Amino acid sequence: MTAERILIVEDEVEFADLVRLWLDRHGWQTLMAHDGHEALRLFDGERPDLVLLDIGLPGLDGWQLIDRIRERSEVPVLVVSALGAETDKVRGLGAGADDYMDKPVSFPELIARVQAALRRSRRGAASSPDPGIVMRGPVRIYPQSHRVLVEGIEIHLTPTEFRLLRHLAERPGELVRHRELLQAVWGPAYGDDTQLLRVTMRNLRAKLAAAAPERRFIATEYGLGYRFAES
Question: What is the DSSP string of the chain?
Fold first, then answer.
């Protein structure tokens, strides 16, 4: 089996070299870019299986690069950035990043998150198309085409937002606890990352509300989890 390729986009050379060392030790092939324009050229030419991305880059910054990548592909994007405010995470995950880690990072945790993202990507590529439409009130979820309509209006979700909505909608009215959602949507290594879940949920709810402002589809059970409410 050919080793999966990871594109590291990081302008701090010493940190980038350390990330590359950890990834190489775990058997992945690595590509390196130190600015946004170089990263986009490598992405288009090499088609990596995952992108590790800093935000504060010369040339194209990380925000612009996420947009360009998402125009081309649903490849997993993991942001590793010193910008750790919740507003930055909301922006990054809303733009299409699959995960967001603050610097300084724990390298064992970084490896676990890379492994989880690649597993999700492999499962998505290998699974047979599921033609079954999930219908909950005015929400229509089309697994095969990765489309969501709310009251007839199509909303554009990131792959992570899509998985989160689908997991809840397939269990209408049922409380789905934080840990179960995290592990179902992101993977086993994510059971305690409630901030990641909260930020992604905020982005998902905003997109649902833009299409149906008078409705509230996802209810919060504080300290426990969420349920699809159809109200």
Answer: -PPPEEEEE-S-HHHHHHHHHHHHHTT-EEEEESSHHHHHHHHHHH--SEEEE-SS-SSS-HHHHHHHHHHH----EEEEES--SHHHHHHHHHHT-SEEEESSPPHHHHHHHHHHHHHHHHHHHHSPP--PPEEETTEEEETTTTEEEETTEEE---HHHHHHHHHHHTSTT--EEHHHHHHHHT-GGGTT-HHHHHHHHHHHHHHHHHH-TT---EEEETTTEEEE---
